[in-house]
Amino acid sequence: PYQVAFLRVAIECLERKTTEVHEDFYTEYLRLQQRASIDQTHVFKHYRVPMMSKMVSIRESPMLISDGTTGLRTWPASVALCEWFFHNKHTLEGKIFLELGAGVGMAGIMLAHMLNNCKIYLTDFHEKVLAILHENINGNPRENDNNLYTYQFDWTCEADYEKLSKTCCPDIIYAADVIYDTEILPPLCQVLTRFIDQNSQTQIIISCTVRNKDTY
After folding, report:
1. Cα–Cα dist 141/120, whole Å
2. What distance in Å separates the CA atoms of residue 192 and residue 172, rounded to the nearest whole number?
3. Cα 178 to the chain's mean position, in Å?
4. Residue 37 pLDDT greater than 70, yes or no
5. What is the DSSP letter of 107?
6. 64-207 CATH choice from 3.40.30.10, 3.40.190.10, 3.20.20.70, 3.40.50.150
7. Mean pLDDT in the chain?
8. Which of 4, 72, 154, 158 has the fewest beta carbons closer than 10 A?
9. Quick check: 86 and 50 in contact, CB under 8 A?
10. pTM of the predicted protein model
11. How far apart are CA 28 and CA 17, in angstroms?
12. What residues does each domain of the chain span?
């Protein structure tokens, strides 16, 4: 991941400063990505940071469900959420963010590239998801002073909540496509309520795709 990230940054810099980049750069970049993606259970997808000559590369699964979870791929609601972040970035600088169900991290990583002077806490429960999340954070180095933190967080686990709430008092809690089952709603609402009790000024942003009227 480091070599891929290094070459991506080098290519972006050369593209900004020259009219032509030697094809060997692109050839090696593709070779490294193909080697990293030799296991076809995961691929790399690339998302452009709005109004910046920068790409965010996310390793994720092409499958809807993988390893028993939907968290190993980027969903449309995450892309829509990033667009909202961009259009409202002037109100978001310097905030503390908490993402519930961060998955492979596209929204949080994109947010970290858009803003400055922020703390962003990315949480998920599934261990495989957290491993890919760490990999994607390390593979997309930032040029600003934002801090990214990751936590394993089961919404129904008191110990997880206590550990997270001791270090994170968020200004904004956000989530994308985490409400896919009615059974998830009570623990989600309980978690949100507890953080609001901790800070009554906390804002909550939920981005979701309309699939089921009971979970929208």
Report:
1. 15
2. 11
3. 13
4. no
5. H
6. 3.40.50.150
7. 88
8. 158
9. yes
10. 0.79
11. 20
12. 2-39, 64-207
